[in-house]
Structure formats: structure tokens, C-alpha cells
Amino acid sequence: MTQVTVSASKAYEVQIGTALLDTVGEQVKKLEGKVQRVAVITDSNVAPLYLPRVETSLKNAGIATISYVFPAGEESKNGETYLSIVEWLASQELTRNACILALGGGVVGDLAGFVAATYLRGIAFIQVPTTLLAAVDSSVGGKTAIDLEAGKNLVGAFYQPRLVLCDLDTFDTLSPAVFADGCAEVIKYGMIRSANLLADLKGTHIKNQLEEVVAQCVGMKRDIVEADEFEQGERKLLNFGHTLGHAIEKQSKYSVSHGKAVAIGMVLITKAAVKQGVCPEECLTLLESLLEKYELPSNTVFSIEELFDGAMADKKRSGDSIDIVIPVAVGKSEIKRIDMEKLKHWIEMGKQ
User: Domains (ranges, CATH) in the chain?
Assistant: First the structure.
């Protein structure tokens, strides 16, 4: 097992290994302040697979447990589901000596985290990611959110978990498509910060170095979050591919998954950066080859106007400008603020 300590506004451990689900109860007992009840929030895909094991572990540790299961999918990450959960928590008379446990992928973690950040003005929160994407990215760093019709993640809070348990065994039940979504985020980390990770991904399949890769990504995110917890500067690097990726998700009504949308977004921006003369061609070649290897797309059917319209609601927009992340060398990216009208030009170059 690998352990990474995140020292943000709240310090916590990220444990990465196998057979961790059965340790949940004992891990909760170790948390500072006695946790008397745990509310497990999960979705309809994950619940049949792992909820009974987590409930058993908690009950064996003498911790009272309740659970809430919502329909799986990004379309559930909305205000209606959020209000249903907090109303249920109140009906269960959950108090501040309780803990929210998010069991699932990124949607579960984002939604349950926002519930934890706002219910009773904040109660303890544990992330138990069950997808590669959630393990390497959304479970660490404290971003929580729900979607609005206008765009993705427009309502949320920075709220750090008390513990993150990444049980790699849960990845065995992922479909190839869902596993590939996580590979997109792993490739993102290499593109923004690590030429060595890109080389590892090219030489050896992620599945054959899973613990090492997850630990590398979590370590990079830890470093970035500790330097810029509330996304005022360096943390914006983690948005590489996400501005156009979120636009694709929105325009597709979330039929295009997050990982696949981010993969396309990375290619569009990198193509434009090459044509602008700020990024070497080898970056694009390597990116496209890795996306092909891990069965991820590199183009979209949506038009320049549709992508631009989708990006107009991006939370990284500030007035008439927006921050974009562009690769400038293999394993290195930079943040660039551009006018929104120039973003349309970047999209056009990326689409050519």
C-alpha cells in the first residue's frame, strides 16, 4: 500500500492499495473526534457491488450506518438530487458527530462532497473512489459541486475530505470505457507536469503499473493543491482539456463521458498551440498516440460555434476573458489568459 499525505487547510491521508474496502470501519474509528454514525452515499451502479461490504465493515467496527442510493449518471448531479439527499439526512436526524462517506466515481464524490460541505454547515467527509478517474483526480483536493442547466460544476465548494481510500480492486469491475475515462485524466497529469509519466504510459500499460501511476498522479495533485488550494494560480493547470471538455459534455447532454470529452479538449487545445507556434509538434504526436493506445477519442462532431457557446458558461471565465492551459513542452504546460473572442479562434485552429 502507498500512502500520500495532503496538507491543505485540513491534513488527510490518501491510501492506495488493495483490499481497503474491508478496512473502512477501522479507518473511520481512527478519525479525530468520535464518529457515531456514517451516511454512505452511492449510486445504483456501485451499490450492488460494494455497498454491502462497506456497511459490514462499518457495523463490525460498531458504527451505526445508513445509506442513500441515487440513479447513476452525470444527469443525477443536480440540485434536485442534492436537495433530496439533504432532506433525507435531516429526516434521519444526522448530527455533526456523523460522517458522509462517498462510495463511487466522480459524480458520487462531487455530489456527496457538496452535501457534506453544506449540511449543518459542514460535517466530516470520506472519499472512497471506485473508478480510476475518481482515484487519480476528483477524490483528492476538495473540489465539490453539482451541475446547473447552464453548465457543469457551477455550484460547489472547496471542502477537503478527512480521508481518501483508493481500493484498486474496485477497478476490476469497471467497463473498458469507464477505465479509459480515467486514463484520460492520467494522461493529463503527464501533459501538464511529468514527461516521465508520459514515457511510462507509452512503455507500459497503466493496468500493469496501477498503484504506481495512481500514486504519481495523487502526488502531483497533492503538490499543486498544497501550493494553491483555492485555484487562484497553479491549480488551474489541472483544467487542461477541461474548458472544451466541459463544453462537449454539455452540448452532448452528457452522453459523451467526462474522460472522453477531456481527451478531445486536450487535443483541440494542443493542435491550436502547435499552430500558434507555442507548442512543439512532438507534444501533439505523443498525446494522440497515447489517446489511441488507451482507446480515447481525439475529435468531436460539435461545431466551432457549439463548442464556443458551451465554453461561455465555464466557471473559469472572468468577464470577457478566460484561463486556458496550453502545453509548451513534453511534460510541461502553462496557464494563459485570453479574451473570449480569441478562444473561438483557438477552437477554430484546433478543429482544422
Answer: 2-173 (3.40.50.1970), 176-351 (1.20.1090.10)
